[in-house]
From TrEMBL:
Protein name: Chitin-binding type-2 domain-containing protein
PANTHER family on file: AGAP001705-PA, CHITIN-BINDING TYPE-4 DOMAIN-CONTAINING PROTEIN
Native source species: Cyclostephanos tholiformis
SUPFAM superfamilies linked: Invertebrate chitin-binding proteins
Domain Chitin-binding type-2 per the UniProt entry, residue ranges: 6-65
Region described as Disordered: 174-204, 803-852
Biased amino acid composition, Low complexity: 823-843
Biased composition regions of type Pro residues, renumbered to the chain: 805-817
């Protein structure tokens, strides 16, 4: 079976579905681009029918026979098929026989789907409904297999109990479908008004206030369409019906109400009846006193017999022709003996669908055929959107993503999957003109009703979708959400709060519920209603993060200070609350726990910072008569005197009800409810209980201390229960949580005051902080601003807004096409010519600037596909630096993503003819080499911009007064990205418009501990990021270098592999690659991405792995390949033609062109030559992995060859030295060096830490990572440090030790090694990190301005002692290491005899 599929698909260039003949058509394969996508099996009783391109009843399928090969039955499907289960399923986890399901749900289908609506005398629905006469369950039995089909059938025909299309479009008022409903559900009504029915007023003739007038010529087409022009594509034109201008037909059905227009009809024009008029509902007559146009402009009904018929209104000469060819007389006459209706000519008598004796079945069969032929087989040639693939995603995603149904509506009614369809007015193969979908909102509702009737939607589907949403984002949950933080700001995966426990508890509380309370998963009756459930879950997680996850704590921390001290009586309540007085309401008072004075409990967890308050405790006054405070200086309780908390308590009697669990559930009411519904009380009352052994009233600490019994799920479950019981049910003074949640989601996720209100409800019991709630006095929620920021960050990380677009506003119908629209339209839109290129300094061959020849693309990808090339690039170029100094493979920038991007930028539709990425001219003998060198230069620059930092979003790196302004998103280095307009003549007008209300959060940021968070923009004032505390400080506002203290419209920071930034560059991306190109009917690589409205898509879209590269390549073309200010291509050609790829001629020109710091230039140069090595343009002898790495420190290349101080990265070098590669002068020393070097650790941190004495090992340091930082002498932002220390004499290389792998702390010459533990710094941690300047007497005057003297920094002395015994003299590092003869303990060259110098990190 698999062999046959592989052979068959290898010949298929496009998406094709073919039967597998060796299985007698029981199985079929889906092919795309010469490959097998998947193998599927038809349901029981059916086989694959090539005539309908789908599964059909066995008795009507004529499966082709394979000659000379005996049929082979396939093996039973494995437990894990290729991609999907063998039989269609409505659930991603349960195989369902669709026909059994239909039988089981018959009554629901008849109640919900197969019903029609009665109408009042004016044609509006009166709310009553009755069983449909024309569409009944038993007729549909065995044919319908998809709720989407039913949803559309309900909107097209069942709702009106009509087989024929009827007059619904009129002038002078509203359509019958408008009926006062939401404009979303009504579309075209007037040709004059051009709006929805609610907005339509005037007729085409300009008469205002007229009654309803239905053009008789509506038979020819409604909604600006002309059905007899619906031609088939050229390869199927032989099937379409020929328009018969002499045909006379009248529809069988029409609407029934007082003075309703008659059924549609068609007839030839005659001299006596040369035109048609209109039907006047006011008088109930057809008036033909003058020609009356329909919206298309027709004033006759000649040849207009091809209106819609059947369940989904099959219309037009192509669709009816195909029905005749495959099902009717046309097929029978052509030898198709199993045509279902061999005597029915659907072209000569299309009304047979509604009027023939077989109509009862035919109205379904013809519609099912059209659905299979036109909808199920739909593949968009531009975007690749495929119905079957998207259907599977929809099912696998829980049957809740209404984007699929919207796309299906577009295919059926407009001929495209993304209406309103640009270019769909070309009427081929069902192209229905451009416009909006008719009754789109109703179709979505019908679809969901059908799903529910089939028991495939509703709450179960929402839960599946919600669980799937978080499972699909498992990496984000692990790396961005479920993270805890050390007191020093270091993030780590939470120990207590795991994703598996979260999902387990969420499943139970949503599916089974507790005490009738369930977690709100969304609204199954609303299109895209899952978004409400997702927002609810994100809000829960954001609040939980601030309550407990951030601190990895289960018990409430003692955090509230009274006069700078922590009262021990905080166990009774913080924020002015008294937890033992948080009683239930009158109706629930029987549940609450009694307060027992003799109860004793001790919390399990507490804050983790050094000498933080001990865990909370409670106990009787007989044991603790009064309580004092926690002395954090001494790290112990001080009970010498009574010390009151904010509410005045000086004891802890009965104070055992502090917060516990993920939501810090507190108070006697909530613990009583836990016991009543989840604990021992439920068991005692004979009810089921999740935790029958825990009496939450006797042992509230069981929430945190029962981990061994119940695992981590208990801590989540308690939080979920409180959320469902107290937050979701909150409805006070008109503020209803569920309603406000929906308003937030439907309003575009913009009103973040909603978050503050929820924080108030959770923390204080009131929604309008500052408010009293549980308190005696009004207060704000604890860390209210942080909660809001965390929610926004989580919303961004989980891509909620990008996944669930808010519901669309009512879309008005397009206004009537102007007269000019009759100008013939070309078959494909003509792309405008690009502006004439300015003369370059030195003209390059044509091949350098335009679309690469196909052969050139093939040749370059031969090199790309070489496994050795891929391996070398992965190990030499696509590398990022971890904050520890280690070099890791880049997570964001992969070889696969690069190749995908290169393919898009060199072939196919491409980015516009002058924007192709250069990969060779296709003419020269060295065409491929030209292309490879251009790629090498591009990738080398990419290393300096983003790959080295593994960043997609620009990092916030610029400091102002030793702080990182949050307004750096507006621009760094004094720039303002939103003011960078396009200056080139050919680019003017392309800039993106700045929207001050746009809100975007970045995805990536620097990785070092305490680094600023991802950049963001929005309409707000901002402060700065304090990298020492790891927190935002927004009061007062803080300005960046350009003077900005807000982030309004500041969404244009750098993104992607070349950090594209500014409104001009994003505008050009949109003009050439994005939505603007598609809107202007030019080729577009990403027609669905508006880079001006969503610049963040580069880093956050599902296609980000290629977008990061594509946008960078486009920017390279614009700024380098098309630069008029450089000799880029002539220099490249000269470089390649010379054949000496080790020459720095070309990369020097590139460096001069692109600029950068010395570090940037060094990185770019090294990366350029490494890419050339990967492409084998620079010979790599033998296995390059075993070759010596000739990387050495020096001010320049020659200096490195003299000193031969080994290094791995620039951080391993001191002062102004950089790490240089290919320092061949040191080759002899490396090869001749004794083998002991290979056994020694090259990691200076390990060497120092292993060699330190007991004093260092036992030093009292709160943050163990501080030791590593000291050993590495590292500071978070290397760019800033390079600038700040350039003039510092202690960092100059001329008078300092030449270090090896890591620079040792420099000890000033004037100071001996002192036993003093006093050092200068801005803070104690800063002094600890730098170990730079001593203050022996302990006074601040000994320090530089802005620094203070701090004591007890013992580790610096320990490191000084280590360094003193690891410094030796030698001509170079190898010489010093081999001799180990003369120490230089002070680290000074003056201690050595010329020409020797002092070298560190030598352990003899």
């Amino acid at each position: 079976m698999f062999g046959e599929a592989g052979v068959t698909c290898s010949a298929m260039t496009t998406w094709t579905t073919v039967p597998l003949l060796l299985t007698k058509c029981e199985y079929y394969a889906q092919c795309s681009e010469y490959e097998t996508v998947e193998i599927l099996k038809c349901p029981e009783g059916t086989l694959f029918d090539v005539s309908v391109v789908g599964c059909n009843w066995k008795d009507v399928v004529d499966c082709p026979v394979v000659p000379t090969v005996s049929p082979v039955m396939p093996p039973e499907p494995t437990a894990n098929p290729t991609s999907s289960p063998a039989q269609p399923t409505m659930s991603p986890t349960i195989n369902v026989d669709i026909f059994d399901r239909l039988t089981e749900r018959r009554s629901d289908l008849e109640d919900v789907v197969f019903r029609s609506y009665a109408r009042t005398s004016d044609g509006t629905e009166d709310g009553a409904y009755y069983p449909s006469y024309w569409y009944q369950y038993q007729d549909f039995y065995g044919l319908a297999n998809i709720a989407a089909f039913l949803g559309h059938a309900m909107s097209e025909s069942i709702r009106y109990d009509a087989c024929d299309e009827f007059h619904w479009e009129y002038k002078g008022g509203r359509t019958i479908d408008d009926g006062g409903e939401d404009g979303n559900n009504g579309t075209s009504t007037t040709s004059g008004g051009g709006g929805t029915g609610n907005n339509a007023t005037d007729g085409m003739d300009g008469t205002s206030g007229m009654g309803r007038r239905y053009a008789i010529s509506n038979s020819c087409g409604q909604n600006y369409q002309n059905y007899q022009e619906y031609s088939c594509p050229p390869d199927e034109v032989y099937m379409q019906c020929e328009v018969d201008t002499n045909m006379i037909l009248q529809a069988t059905t029409g609407l029934i109400y007082h003075n309703a227009p008659p059924p549609l009809y068609c007839m030839p024009r005659t001299t006596s009846v040369p035109y048609t008029g209109y039907w006047d509902v006011d008088v109930g007559l057809e008036l033909s006193t003058y020609p009356y146009e329909n919206t298309y402009g027709r004033t006759d009904v000649e040849g207009c017999c091809y209106w819609g018929r059947g369940a989904i209104m099959s219309r037009g000469i192509c669709s009816l022709g195909k029905i005749n060819h495959y099902l009717g007389k046309g097929g029978y006459d052509n030898g198709k003996v199993n045509a279902r209706y061999p005597t029915t000519d659907f072209c000569a008598f299309p009304e047979a669908i509604c009027a023939s004796p077989e109509s009862r079945e035919m109205r379904w069969v013809t519609s099912m055929f059209e659905w299979a032929e036109r909808v199920q087989s739909y593949t968009d040639p531009i975007s690749g959107w495929n119905y079957i693939s998207e259907l599977k995603k929809f099912v696998d995603g829980g049957l809740v993503d209404m984007e699929f149904l919207r796309a299906t509506s577009g295919i059926l009614t407009m001929g495209c999957h993304d209406p309103p369809c640009a270019g769909s007015d070309v009427k081929l193969n069902g192209g229905f003109g451009s416009g909006s979908v008719y009754r789109d909102g109703e179709r979505e509702t019908n679809f969901q009703n059908a799903l529910i009737a089939l028991d495939a939607g509703g709450e179960d589907a929402l839960l599946r979708g919600l669980l799937g949403y978080f499972k699909d984002r498992e990496d984000v949950m692990a790396t961005q959400i479920l993270l805890s933080q050390t007191p020093q700001g270091k993030l780590y995966p939470s120990y207590r709060y795991q994703l598996s426990d979260f999902l387990s508890a969420l499943t139970y509380i949503s599916e089974t519920g507790i005490g009738g309370r369930k977690f709100y998963t969304g609204d199954s009756r609303v299109p895209g209603g899952l978004r409400y459930g997702v927002v609810n879950a994100v809000m829960f997680l954001a609040q939980a993060y601030k309550e407990s996850i951030q601190y990895d704590a289960c018990d409430e921390n003692n955090w509230e200070m009274v006069n700078d001290l922590f009262p021990l009586s905080n166990a009774c309540g913080q924020l002015g609350m008294s937890y033992q007085d948080m009683s239930c309401g009158e109706e629930e008072a029987y549940m609450e726990c009694p307060v027992k004075a003799n109860m004793e409990q001790v919390a399990l967890t507490n804050a983790g910072w050094f000498q933080a308050p001990a865990p909370l405790k409670c106990g009787p006054r007989s044991k603790f008569p009064t309580t004092g405070f926690w002395d954090y200086n001494l790290g112990k309780e001080n009970n010498a005197d009574a010390y009151a908390n904010a509410r005045g308590r000086v004891d802890v009697e009965g104070c055992c009800w502090w917060g516990r669990g993920v939501m810090q559930t507190r108070g006697v009411c909530m613990y009583g409810k836990l016991n009543h519904f989840l604990g021992k009380r439920a068991t005692d009352d004979g009810r089921d209980a999740l935790y029958p052994e825990i009496d939450f009233c006797e042992f509230p600490q069981g929430v945190c201390s029962s981990y061994d019994t119940y695992g981590g799920e208990l801590q989540w479950m308690v939080g979920f229960f409180e959320w469902a019981d107290r937050i979701q049910t909150y409805d006070v003074d008109g503020w209803n949580y569920i309603e406000k949640l929906k308003e937030f989601a439907d309003g575009g996720y913009k009103d973040f005051s909603f978050v503050d209100s929820v924080s108030g409800v959770l923390n204080l019991g009131c929604h309008n902080p500052p408010c009293s709630g549980f308190n005696n006095n009004a207060a704000n929620p604890h860390n209210m601003r942080d909660r809001n920021d965390i929610f926004q960050r989580f919303l961004n990380h989980l891509q909620v807004e990008r996944t669930f677009r808010p519901p669309p506003k009512p879309t008005p119908m397009p206004s009537p096409a102007p007269t000019e629209a009759d100008i013939p339209i070309t078959e494909a839109p003509t792309e405008p010519e690009s502006p004439t290129e300015y003369p370059t300094i030195s003209p390059a061959p044509t091949g350098f600037m335009g679309r690469p020849p196909t052969t050139t693309v093939d040749d370059i990808f031969l090199t790309m596909d070489d496994p050795k090339t891929e391996n070398r690039l992965g190990e030499m170029v696509l590398l990022s630096e971890h904050p520890s100094g280690e070099i890791w493979p880049s997570y964001l920038y992969t070889w696969r993503g690069f190749k995908m991007a290169l393919r898009k930028m060199t072939s196919g539709k491409g980015p516009g003819e002058k924007n192709f990425f250069f990969i060779g001219d296709g003419v020269s003998a060295k065409s491929v080499e030209y292309g490879l060198v251009n790629i090498a230069a591009f990738m080398a620059h990419a290393v300096t911009e983003s790959i080295y930092y593994d960043a997609c979003d620009e990092n916030s790196w610029e400091m102002v007064d030793f702080r990182y302004p949050l307004s750096n998103s507006c621009g760094q280095q004094g720039l303002s990205y939103q003011d960078e307009v396009c200056e080139k003549e050919e680019d003017k007008g392309m800039e993106c418009e700045v929207d001050p209300d746009m809100e975007i959060h970045g995805v990536t940021h620097a990785h070092w501990v305490g680094a600023p968070p991802p950049m963001y923009c929005g309409n707000r004032q901002v402060g700065y990021w304090d990298h020492r505390t790891g927190l935002e400080e927004n009061v007062p506002p803080f300005k960046n270098k350009a003077g900005r203290s807000d982030v309004k419209g500041c969404c244009w920071w750098g993104r992607g592999v070349l950090q594209v930034r500014g409104v001009c560059n994003y505008g050009k991306l949109n003009y050439w690659l994005g939505a603007r190109a598609a809107a202007e009917k030019r080729n577009s690589l990403y027609p669905d991405i508006d880079f001006c409205k969503n610049p963040g898509a580069i880093c956050s879209d599902r296609r980000a792995p290629e977008l990061r590269w594509v946008t960078g390549m486009f920017h390279w073309v614009q700024t380098v390949q098309r630069s008029r200010l450089s000799n880029y291509f002539p220099t490249l050609k000269t470089f390649v033609d010379a054949g000496d790829y080790a020459d720095d001629l070309f990369i020097s020109m590139v460096n001069n062109m692109l600029g950068g710091t010395p570090d940037d230039i060094s990185k770019r140069t090294d990366a350029f030559f490494n890419v050339l090595r990967a492409f084998n343009l620079i010979l790599v002898e033998g296995d390059y992995e075993d070759a010596p790495v000739l990387t050495f420190c020096g001010v320049d290349y020659d200096d490195a060859g003299t000193k031969c101080t080994p290094c791995e990265t620039n951080k391993d070098c001191s002062g102004m030295e950089l790490c240089h590669v290919n320092v061949t002068a040191c080759d002899v020393m490396v090869n001749g060096f004794n083998n002991t070097l290979a056994d020694e650790s090259t990691n200076a941190t390990a060497a120092i830490l292993n060699g330190v004495n007991d004093e260092l090992a036992n030093a009292t340091i709160a943050n163990e990572n501080a030791t590593v930082a000291i050993a590495n002498n590292s500071v978070p932002n290397t760019n800033t440090i390079a600038a700040d220390t350039a003039d510092d004499p202690t960092t100059q290389s001329s008078n300092t030790t030449n270090t090896g792998a890591v620079e040792a702390p420099i000890i000033p010459m004037t100071l001996p090694i002192s036993s003093s533990t006093n050092f200068c710094g801005e803070t104690w941690g800063d002094a600890l990190t730098k170990c730079a300047k001593r203050c022996p007497t302990g006074t601040d005057t000994e320090c530089d301005p802005g620094e203070y003297c701090f004591s007890d920094i013992t580790v610096c002395n320990s490191l000084a002692q280590v360094n003193a015994i690891s410094n030796y003299c030698g001509v170079n590092w190898f010489d010093a290491h081999s001799k180990c003869s003369k120490p230089c303990p002070w680290g000074l060259d003056a201690e050595c005899t010329p020409p020797e110098s002092c070298f560190s990190n030598i352990y003899c």
